[in-house]
Structures are given as C-alpha cells and as structure tokens.
Amino acid sequence: MKIHLYERVWIGASVAMLMLFFGSIAVGAVGSNRHPPSHIETIDPTGVLSDARFATQGVRTDDAGRVHAWIVGLTFVWLPAELVVPADTPVTFHLTSVDVTHGFSIVRTNGQTMVLPGYVSQFTTTFAEGEYLIACNEYCGLGHHDMAAKLHVVPPEQWRQATTSREAPDTTGLAALTPEGSHAGH
Ligand code: CUA
C-alpha cells in the first residue's frame, strides 16, 4: 500500500501532537501536582445555604484537627470573600454553586476546580505564606470578571491563636446572600 507523502506528514503531525498533549498532562500531574477533583458528592443546588455543610461558609477545623474551607459560588461572588488558612498545612476545600458553573482558581497555586451546581467539588492542597487572589475562571455571566476573593495564608501559630480567640460560628442560621452575610456571628 502506498501512502502519499502529504498523508504521511499529517499522520506524523497528529501523532506528534498527541504525544505533546499527553506529555504536558504528565508534566502537570507529576511536576506541578495537578489532579482532577475526583470526589463525587452531591447536593441539592436549591438548598445549599440551608445545608449543614454550607450554611456557614468559611474555614473550620474537624475533630482530628484538619483544616477545611467551605465555599459557595454564586453570580458573582465567592462566599466568603476572604479566607484565612495556616501555611504549610493541608487545607481541604469543599465547593459548590447555587446557580451556574463557576471556576475556582487560587492564582499561582495548584488549587483549582470547576464548581458545579448539584455537586460538591473537593481538593486538598498546602500553601506557602502570602496573599493569593482567588478568581473565577469559567465564564459565568456579565459579572464574571468581578467574581474574586482573597486567600490569606498566615504562619500556623498566628492562625491557631486567631482561631481560638474567635467565637464559634453560628451554624443554625441561614447566611444571607451577600458577602457580608457570610461572616456569621461577627
Ligand atoms: Cu463565576 Cu465566572
């Protein structure tokens, strides 16, 4: 069978492109510790703010002392608008949306996931001390470019002191649909 020269070129180019794409995925997964959020947990998107998991958004510690951040995305804000977490400590993020698909992206880190109504996205990562911008990286409407939040990563001792001096969050009430309303009890 004779394969025309141009056909050979196209076959070669296709194979080279596939190798390049697989290679870039491998480099991202191994080199930058990027992984798909594989956790499957569902939620009623119409009842997010009365769901025990998301009624109070923000950073909480579980019984084992692990740090969790509970975040809700809606057009066009992240609740809460500011997060404080300890440096060099694994933080597990739990995210969901009450309306459309958003993209939660902690800029210049490997912390990133799609945020879909009906599902709870989850990932765990650690941060170096500093201030990080959280952006929405899935087009979600006219205010998409305004959908930002801030992540403060502070030394663990400082974070623990601030946490113990803070009063326990009120998990009984519904958080209002405003960024201010997310700081329940303050
Ligand atoms: Cu939310 Cu773009």
Q: What labels describe this entry?
A:
20% helix; alpha+beta; disordered C terminus; binds dinuclear copper ion; 2 helices
Specify the CATH architecture of the largest domain: Sandwich
Rounded average pLDDT = 88
Low-confidence stretches: 168-186
Count up the helices.
2
What does the largest sheet look like? 5 strands, mixed
Q: Return the string of H and E elements.
A: HEEEEEEEEEEH
Strand proportion: 25-35%
How far apart the termini lie comes to 77 Å
Number of strands: 10
The CATH topology of the largest domain is given as Immunoglobulin-like
Percent range of helical residues? 10-25%
Radius of gyration: 20 Å
In total, the number of domains comes to 2
Description of the structure:
With 186 residues, the protein is α+β, with helices and mostly antiparallel strands. The chain has 2 domains: 1-34; 45-173, Cupredoxins -  blue copper proteins (Immunoglobulin-like), CATH 2.60.40. It is 20% helix and 30% strand. It is built from 2 helices and 10 strands. The strands form 2 sheets. Strands 1, 2, 3, 5 and 8 form a 5-stranded mixed beta sheet that branches. Strands 4-10-9-6-7 form a 5-stranded mixed beta sheet. β2 and β3 (77-79) form a beta hairpin. The longest helix has 27 residues, at 5-31. The protein is elongated. Residues 168-186 have low confidence and may be disordered. The structure holds dinuclear copper ion. Residues 73, 76, 102, 136, 138-140, 144, 147 line the site of dinuclear copper ion. Dinuclear copper ion (CUA) binds at residues 73, 76, 102, 136, 138-140, 144, 147.
